[in-house]
Amino acid sequence: MTSAEVANHYFRKAARIMDVGERIETLLATPVREVKVQVSIELDNGEIRTFQGFRVQHDNSRGPMKGGLRFHPQVDQAEVLGLASLMTWKTAVTNLPYGGAKGGVQVDPTQLSLKELERLTRKYVDQVHDLIGPTQDILGPDMNTNPQVMAWVMDQYSKYHGHSPAVVTGKPLELYGSKGREAATARGLQFIAREISRDVGLALAGLRFAIHGFGNVGSHAARLFHEDGGLIVAVSDVHGGVQNPRGLDVPALFEHVRKTGSVRGFGGGAACSSEEVLAADCDVLVPAALGGVVDARAAQAVRAKIVLEGANAPCTPEADEVFEKRGVLVVPDILANAGGVTVSYFEWVQNLQHLTWDEERVNTELHRVMREAYEKVAQISRSRKLPLRTSAYVLAIGRVGKATVLRGI
Ligand code: NAD
User: Fold this and answer.
1) CA 190 centroid distance within chain
2) Which of 4, 48, 61, 80 could form a disulfide with 404 if both were Cys (CB 3.0 to 4.6 A apart)?
3) Residues 318, 278: one domain?
């Protein structure tokens, strides 16, 4: 299944439970706009290279559309469409005044120099600048795009439309970024983990976590769970993994990653593969790398009681069914990893109001948004006896559907 099919699968499953009717279902599933653009740049050696760029704007009934920009060799129209629709449901679950969008360029950024990457980013903005904007469609970071890339987006867009920091979030702090944005997705996971552990009667201190992916989301999650007294028993990145049933020394692991760029080779545990991390003996599994890594086979091997989706769409629908049958509690991406877009929203608000919040205010507001979203989803789950994922979609579809009908079709 492509990511578009996965997102569509969950959407349709919930829409049928809600009995919204086929016409509204089609209306909500169909994106507002899909564009594919040519991104041609001159390489440092004088050669011309052409890449494909995408922007999908899925829904704008609840506000301007919001979604990241990713640079990855496997980016295609279908993936971007699936991720754009996930953003619609994610912003609705958290009740942010946004719709959903996503963009990407099919490129391996590790093969480009910094100057080439800058030219690529600026060219992409040249091609979509008329379709995006602070009240239309706001970009943000995603896989392989960082605050520097966001700064180039802001600068290039501003050349066409005047000074516009609010066209993109995840910017550097020195250039209208928000305090707390970098760790926001992981902090959201931490808040949700606290709520869940309380609800299922497990103490967070001593809870054992396995984390697949050690980038922005995975590494900050490891640090924050460790701060809460959790044990990080296994971690992996694209190069390999390390495990220790007694808990890894997290500060020492960070030092190792700072020196070597990977968790592989860390001396405080035994080397292991990414598959072993997914199947590690733990209480909470946090997939925080790529989409689709947990399929039905991997789901059978999972030993965690709780799966907290840090990545977007890490579990396939088949895996979801396995978890449901096995009684493993899955906290879906559109709830669990919504901390990032929530603080992106705070950044946009600060940019529009020309003021800055301190980190304490950002984290307090983030906590409120995540707690309210969790409580609503958990309440639907309890009252309708539905899994958390379906409940989150029910909440989101209700909000988007109501806004669509109120605005008029
Ligand atoms: P990142 O690029 O910072 O980190 C990705 C990590 O995954 C790296 O450690 C990488 O080595 C690892 N990885 C890649 N392939 C792997 C493999 N085959 N096995 C094991 N590890 C592998 O990305 P990120 O920002 O941390 O995002 C991770 C996921 O979370 C993505 O799905 C992204 O869409 C999602 N997400 C990110 C945010 C955010 O704010 N950054 C918000 C919501 C969702």
Assistant:
1) 14
2) 61
3) yes
